[in-house]
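During the no-cost extension, the postdoctoral fellow (Dr. R.K.) reprocessed legacy sequence entries with the updated structure-token encoder. One reprocessed record is reproduced below for audit purposes.
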Amino acid sequence: MADWGEAAFNPSSIALVGASAKSSKLGYILMRNLLEGYPGKLYPINPGETEIMGHQAYPRLLDVPGQVDLAVIALPTEACVEAMRDCAKIGAKAALVLSGGFAEVGPDGQARQEALIEAARAGGVRLIGPNCFGLYNCNLGLNASMGLGLPPKGGSISLVTQSGAYGMAIFGLAQQRHLRFAKILSHGNKADLADHEILDYFEQDDETRVLCLFLESVSDGRAFYEALVRVAQRKPVVIAKTGRSSAGRRAAASHTAALTGDATAFVTAVRQAGAILAESGLEMVDIAEGLSRQPLPTGRRVAIITNSGGTGVELADMCERFGLSVPELPEDTQARISPLIPAYASPRNPVDVTPAWARFPEMYAGSIEALYACNEVDIIIPILLQRSALMRENVEGVSEAVLRCQREPGLAKPTYVCWVVGREGDENQAILQEAGIPVYEWPERTARTAAAIAVYAENHHARVEAANVNP
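Re-encoded structure tokens follow.
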């Protein structure tokens, strides 16, 4: 069915099979999650209840009076196949099976999974899972997952994760950094719905501007590659794949029944398709943050502002290590910066404002404005270390200067902040993040992320130019 994505992410009606009024049950968590924000019709299914949380309960799916777009199944493993047969009988469009105990546990589980697939296909039901965490449509208010709480609306990043718990950890990390998501899908064993079908959906989803994939395996490599090429032409795709070592492949097989395939071929295919390969889930979030919050750089030339000479040198080293350049600033830019900083400070690049903390707000903001006006700078990285990060007026000045410059025509270049301070700086960090300015801890992480985005931007611009020459 071509409309599985609409049925899953924008269902007009949901049947929760295994809904419960008992707080110790998964069906209770799911019911509460759905009631928190889902605006459509909700049908709790439980033969032992007549009402759950103010909603009439039904003994079986066959007793539901209306159409069911999405069935969410949270039952003991042995009951799932019969529930899927009921889904087929009532014409449910998609079924999300959170229950485990299928192919990931061995031959007996594989047989149960094949029976589940057979039951779904008999009625044209698209199966998501089994052995998965669930899904979110944050902008709709839909939380059909084990996760507690409804994320805020307004996000543009979507996450597809084969590992549900790890995916939710990634999601939690992103929330700490004030990132907002559009959609999240955990597909577990991927018994029915293939990777390329998921890509096809997100290619057409206008709410998704950056797509993140956390994968253990890939189903139908050729179809996946072809779909990835199409999606990457329209929006950035960031991929983190586990199971690239022998130990990782063994662990993946016991986790989601994943067949991980050849790691070298996967890396080559991802890069040829125009997607970004992240080394870890953390790096995937870092890159997605930069892509979703800032314009793409037009080159690899970095300008650094720092209140610590040693940290500035380390960041310059890291930038060059990852393929960026830190050129000396042109004379006119240095002349514009020099009056802002102490006579013994350096305007060359890195711009070292020294620990003259009383002047931090004017030195940082003025230097940022000078660097935005400089045609020989593509990326700006202010280092906010200790006092410069803990001074609220300085952090606000950095934020206001970046936003002010980015509103000017022709000044669309990214700023990424290198953050070097403890948890006592969290409140100030949030000022930057809420303003849409990415913050990365320590020089290596900042430089690695900036380089990944710069390489992506370079390749993306080349592909666009080639397409324009050969339409």
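The CA atoms of residues 307 and 355 lie 5 Å apart. Residues 443-469 form the longest helix (27 residues). The remaining legacy entries will be reprocessed before the final report is submitted.
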